[in-house]
Prior knowledge:
By secondary structure, the protein is mainly alpha-helical. The chain has helices at about 10-50, 55, 65-90, 95-130, 130-140, 155-180, 180-225, 230-245, 275-285, 300-305, 310-315, 315-330, 375-390, 400-410; strands at about 255, 260, 410-415, 420, 425-430, 430-435. The chain has a two-stranded antiparallel ribbon. The protein has a two-stranded antiparallel ribbon with strand order 3-4.
Amino acid sequence: MVLPLGVDRFGESAQILLQQSRALQMMSDLMHRRIELDTQYIAGLQALAEEYKNVASNDVLDGLPTLVLTQLEEELESRIVANDDMKKYAESLPDISEPERDISAGSVYLMKAKQGYQDVMEAKSEAEASKLSLRAWYKKKKYARWDDSAKLPGEDRRYRQSVVTQHRTAEKARSWLSNYPLVVDQHKERVEKLWSALKQASIANIDLATSLSCHLSTYHDQLEEFSSQAAITPVKEACKEDAESQIARPAAYHNYCIGGVKSPILFGADLFLPENRLEVLISELYRGYSLKLCPWGDLFDIEQTSGGIVQYMKLSSDSRKTNVRVVFEFELCHYNPLLPLKREIPSQLLDIPPSRNELASLLDFKLEEDDALSSDRRRRLAHEISRYTPFFECLAVGQPHSNYIRAFWQKWDFLAGCPLPNGIERKLEGRVTVVKVQKTGEKYYPSHWKE
């Protein structure tokens, strides 16, 4: 079947309108989204400028921070003006959604009319091809009475139905096309409004680019005038003053106990060495086993000739072994005892060495509170003393009842804070402290005792 010329192009008017209308909607949406993004960007720049405003207000780096912030504020002003103009132009954009729905409906009407016409042409072609059989049917039925078998032939019936349907679709198409001139005029008006808004927006962007270019040009010229040497000069001068200040030099200590004599510091403060001094002195106690105690009155003399703790620890053991224990014990005197024995021992226990189970009842753990030595370090120090030295008196410097202190040295696990298991005691073999099982003589070394 050959269709008349122009049938295949029928409905293009609505399709073209629909495509252009959707393009208008796309450009309108794009403009609104662009304005939203620009507004968010401006808000971000404003927050950034406000955040760093106080920093830039300080006259540092030869005014460079202020220069940077000023450039940002000028850029903000230009962008705000351009964004406000864009919002004003966007308000003039036409509403595309309602006309697009009408054009879309008209396109459907025209497509249905086109399909109806094609159906008529196809049914007509079929009927025309069957005209001999249709005439024969008519001759046969012309004078016959009508009954149930006298239905119209299928070719003619389909032809009739397609024509009736085409009448309805053609009527709707003609009705929409009758308003076509008005639809086109309205569409043209929308195109011109959007075109005008785009031109105005383009001018606003050109003005923005011109303004930014002017600001950036001035900003660049000001950056060229900046001198890093001039900015760093105050830093160098301040550093020189700090380096020459007494604050950056070691303060002298004057011992006013002996008339304000200038002296190094050997004890009375647990100095911050790579290893804490108390732990270092414990190891020295082990190396200097044969110790001769010196009078407490000579402590300041020892201190004055020591050169300080760092120099003192560099001396050979022979040069200082007679002084290590007294320095260590004097240092411990400034803290609560490592072994916090109760100040009052029940009279019935004074003459009897305490049993393993009675040891814990002799301790007053409140003495560990509010002390410079933490509980953990206190236990580690006591453990090191019991491990390396026979000087159990160091566990409770200045406290009586040495028999009780000895009992702790023999039977107490200082790291765990509880008695050693039954049948296990600490002993001195020659110069070495060992913990053994009494029955077997095997060494005892639990996993929580670290090397």
